[in-house]
Write a structure and sequence with these properties.
Strand content: 15-25%
Shape: elongated
Strand order of the largest sheet: 1-2-4-3-5-16-6-15
Oligomer: single chain
Radius of gyration: 28 Å
Order of helices and strands: HHHEEEHEHEEEEEHEEEHEEHEHEH
Length: 441
């Protein structure tokens, strides 16, 4: 073969080889680069000082004006005011006081982000510039912070709206502390067409900026019971002429503790706690009745059923031993008032990866199971999703007390992390879901 023939063959083959080698890989590399760049931009936008300070201001305004379940009128007004300023459309009222906003194309796929917004009926004892202005009401569970971070995510997502390959649904939910808000929002269709949901809860257990969760069973479900033990009242100096319901109630409280300690598998966590006892009004009168009430918690409906059955048997048994009768009721009819929070493993892994990118592997932890409950679980019964904890413990700022403490303080510097994680998950989920849709097409 002479040189002229060799040159001719090479000139024909080379363009074909070049095209075959670079056509598909070039698209993958470009897409990966763009996704990575936009996720970095989301983080940058969330960390901008003007955005971080704005989230603090919003949180402090809500903190000063706490509202209980289904009373969140001013809170939802603040949310709507800020959404209007951002140019974000929303639906209101939902479940009485809730707000549901949307950002993106308005078309599938849909992904939801959630923040609760109600306060607790307790007095704030922390002295600071933005202390609660309402006696007996206090944001002692961080819901004001949850709202601020989700609004922060809304601001970021609105700035990158043209890049969203679907629609983000932002759920500002009332009445989490009552365990009813999520159910009511579901009834009003907030999860229609939603393919996944994500939520954040700030916690004092972890240092500021640490992100933690676990796949599968994460938070316990809870049920509650109330028992009225009926005896026969009389003078305390003549107990033989009475039937003492306080004695029966006391025996019931002690006996209930043996359910978990002696009947439940030590590897299958459960809790039975009596938290209320009411009886009598005078030191020398045996009352006609005594009432006890409490909570029971577990991670499965089977365990709930077993616990409620044994609570009823124990209380009725102790009442009978002490010649009393009893009226007992279970809220939820033997099922949990709030189901266990069970994280979807696929969503968990996706958020865990995003968390590692955001705060590093050293600040991304596998959390243990917790006996606390969250009505976010109702959302997870309908669509795949995951709840993550964001640490807020900071000794220098006094952020060491647990939720529901009158001395509860948080570290507001974590807000950009929460906003960024919300926004990164929404963007990433929509990008992945849209990619799968295109492959099917």
């Amino acid at each position: 073969m002479d040189l002229l023939q060799l040159w001719f063959l090479i000139s024909i083959a080379t363009p074909l080889c070049f095209s075959l080698n670079l056509q598909a890989p070039a698209l993958d590399v470009s897409t990966t680069f763009e996704n990575h760049s936009l996720k970095d931009e989301i983080v940058r936008l969330a960390k901008e000082p003007i955005t971080a300070n704005w989230m603090k201001d919003v949180r402090r305004e809500i903190h000063e004006n706490p509202e209980l379940a289904y009373e969140e009128i001013k809170t939802s007004a603040v949310i709507r005011r800020e959404l209007d300023r951002l140019g974000v459309s929303y639906r209101w009222p939902v479940a009485q006081t809730g707000v549901v906003a949307t950002i993106g194309s308005g078309s599938p796929p849909f992904v939801a982000l959630r923040a609760d917004m109600d306060a607790l009926p307790m007095q704030e004892l922390v002295e600071w510039e933005h202390k609660s202005k309402v006696d007996g009401k206090f944001h002692a569970c961080g819901h004001d912070a949850h709202v601020a971070m989700l609004l922060g995510a809304a601001k970021v997502l609105k700035q990158v709206e043209d890049e969203l390959q679907g629609t983000v649904v932002l759920i500002f939910q009332p009445a989490e502390e009552r365990g009813e808000g999520a159910k009511d929002m579901i009834k009003e269709g907030v999860l229609d067409n939603v393919e996944a949901i994500f939520g954040i809860h700030i916690v004092h257990r972890y240092p500021s900026g640490v992100i933690a969760s676990r796949p599968g069973e994460f938070l316990a479900g809870c049920g509650s019971f109330k028992a009225k033990i009926i005896g026969k009242g009389g003078h305390a100096a003549l107990p033989q002429q009475s039937i003492d319901p306080i004695l029966a109630a006391s025996a019931s409280v002690v006996s209930l503790q043996s359910i978990v300690s002696r009947e439940i598998d030590p590897l299958d966590s459960g809790v039975v706690s009596v938290a209320m006892i009411q009886a009598g009004s005078a030191f020398n009168v045996i009352p006609d009745s005594a009432t006890i009430a409490g909570t029971y918690r577990a991670f499965s409906k089977k365990s709930f059923s077993a616990l409620s059955q044994r609570i009823e048997e124990v209380v009725k048994g102790q009442a009978a031993v002490h010649r009393c009768s009893v009226e007992i009721e279970f809220l939820g009819e033997g099922n949990p008032n709030i189901p266990p929070t069970i994280n979807d493993e696929r969503i968990y892994e996706q958020v865990r990866g995003l968390s590692s990118e955001l705060v590093g592997n050293e600040n991304t932890e596998l959390a243990p199971t917790f006996m606390g409950s969250e009505d976010f679980a109702f959302f997870l019964e309908k669509v795949p999703g995951s709840m993550f904890f964001l640490g807020t413990r900071n000794e220098k700022k006094g952020a060491t007390h647990p939720p529901h403490s009158p001395y509860y303080v948080i570290d507001e510097d974590i807000f950009p992390i929460g906003a960024a994680l919300h926004a990164k998950f929404a963007y990433s989920f929509l990008s992945d879901a849209a990619g799968k849709l295109h492959l099917h097409l």
